[in-house]
Design brief:
single chain, about 475 residues, alpha+beta, FAD/NAD(P)-binding domain, 6-stranded mixed beta sheet, 12 helices, 22 strands, oxidoreductase
């Protein structure tokens, strides 16, 4: 490893961002011998971006491994991803992320990350996802400790507001009037989900004259405003992804505007029914396993009048899902529950009774795609359809919760940003800023951390290699 110059002069590699992808890039570049400066927009106590709210990493493995049961081979991972994205994914980059995910955990452990078995309520993920002991906050803290021990220089409250990019080549970043040059740069500063104006632009107005984005909660950090994504677009970077597509979850309508995280998610959808403010069902609650479908419900609710929905269960469902942080409405009658939720009583009772009458109950098993389904009601419920007939009844008001947006910068297998179809020599992108290359739509649990970890490491290695190549070229000159 070359001499540590991370606190002296121009760094070899500048990493902009402070979450999982940025930290993986900084650590990898430093391990490769580069001096590294990391700029985090947030104060130290809010460092880590959305990664602080994560719990696990989806990873390929061909045999059982400590906390992972059975096997989760490449082809099954790919098919899971292909299904949730509807094929809107770059297969080459997706398969790269999948294969490299099998090699991440040993590296993560070397930097202080610990894993634990799946918790009660998440046992269905024990084969596919490795859970972080202490959650995402512990992971972020471990990476910062390791980075500082290796000599990575970290600056907090350092929001970069513009980039100096010439013909696709990075020259410098600016914080106000301060110019920070580097030989190579990794951008890992997130999407634009906390930029309400951009969300409004992306989602537009609906037929009722509403601006759906005005009613969104932001599940993660308030600092992901898309400033550098916009800067890259203005610099002529090739983009990928639909600005209205995102990891968008149905969360408790009482969730805070920012940083509600996973505890505000409502996980009982597949065990009951979901209705809109007119007490009408609007989608198949039992379409597929919850980890593959939870991230479509935010978008579904966003498309309903008032951007609100109501998840309704009976007492048979209690104990079968991870309970939310806030207790829901509870009543001994359907009419009483409707009153508490502010729904029309007659319409609500009619919807529930129509659903109940349509249920064809076979052998209920929430761990498999069982044969409990509806017949003669629209929309159908294709699995886990049990009548709502056992008091007390429970209801949770829902609203959309944006985790991260999918519009991003087009990259290649080196994580190099592309300009007019050509890869940049020294500008690389990781994490949410390029996730749209893999996630054109949809989501499956833990894959965001897969993308961030894999492409963070790739971007860090590529940036370090670019500085070595630059040094050789300068010496030759």
């Amino acid at each position: 490893m070359k001499q540590d110059t991370s606190n002296q002069g121009t760094p070899d590699v500048l990493v902009i961002g402070g979450g999982n992808a940025a930290l993986c890039a900084a650590l990898t570049a430093r391990e490769a011998g580069a001096s590294v400066l990391l700029l985090e927009a947030a104060p130290r106590e809010w460092r880590g971006g959305n990664s602080s709210h994560t719990r696990n990493l989806r990873c390929m493995h061909d045999a059982p491994q400590d906390v992972l049961t059975d096997a989760y081979p490449e082809e099954e991972f790919w098919q899971d991803l292909k299904k949730v994205t509807g094929g809107r994914t770059n297969e080459q980059l997706a398969r790269l992320a999948i294969r490299e995910s099998s090699r991440c955990r040993d590296w993560m452990r070397r930097h202080g990350v610990h894993f634990q078995p799946s918790l009660s309520g998440t046992l269905h993920l024990s084969r596919t996802n490795a859970f972080f002991m202490g959650g995402g906050k512990a992971l972020v803290n471990a990476y910062y400790r390791s980075a500082e021990a290796l000599g990575v220089r970290v600056r907090y409250e350092a929001p970069v507001d513009r980039l100096e990019v010439v013909d696709g080549e990075f020259r410098a970043a600016w914080i106000g009037q301060e110019r920070i040059a580097a030989r190579a740069c990794v951008l890992a500063s997130g999407g634009f989900e906390s930029n309400r104006e951009w969300l409004r632009e992306a989602w537009g107005q609906n037929s009722d004259g509403e601006w759906p984005a005005d009613n969104f909660a932001i599940r993660g950090t308030r600092f992901n405003r898309g400033v550098l994504l916009k800067a890259m677009m203005e610099a002529g970077a090739d983009t990928i992804g639909d600005p209205s597509q995102s990891h968008c979850v149905a969360v408790d309508a009482r969730a805070p505007l920012y940083d509600g995280g996973i505890c505000t998610r409502i996980d009982c959808v597949s065990l009951g029914i979901v209705v809109n403010k007119h007490a009408q069902r609007f989608y198949d609650e039992g379409e597929d396993f919850w980890p593959k479908r939870y991230a479509i419900w935010g978008r579904l609710v966003a498309q309903q009048p008032g951007q609100v929905g109501f998840s309704v269960i009976d007492s048979k469902a209690v104990g079968r899902f991870m309970p939310p942080v806030f207790p829901g409405a509870k009543a001994d009658t359907l009419e009483g529950l409707a009153r508490q939720l502010g729904l029309d009583e007659q319409a609500f009772v009619r919807t529930v009774r129509d659903y109940n009458a349509a249920c064809r109950v076979g052998t209920f098993d929430h761990t498999v795609l069982d044969d409990c389904h509806t017949d003669g009601v629209t929309p159908a419920k294709t699995h886990w359809a049990l009548p709502l007939d056992t008091a007390p009844f429970y209801g949770y008001a829902l609203k959309p919760g944006i985790t991260f947006t999918y519009l991003g910068v087009k990259v290649d297998e080196r994580a190099a940003a592309h300009f007019k179809g050509e890869p940049s020599r020294n500008l690389f992108v990781a994490g949410e800023m390029m996730a749209g290359n893999v996630l054109g739509q949809g989501y499956t649990a833990g894959v965001g951390m897969t993308i961030g970890t894999v492409f963070g490491r790739i971007a860090g290695a590529s940036a370090a290699a670019a500085t070595r190549k630059e040094g050789v070229e300068h010496a030759a000159a």
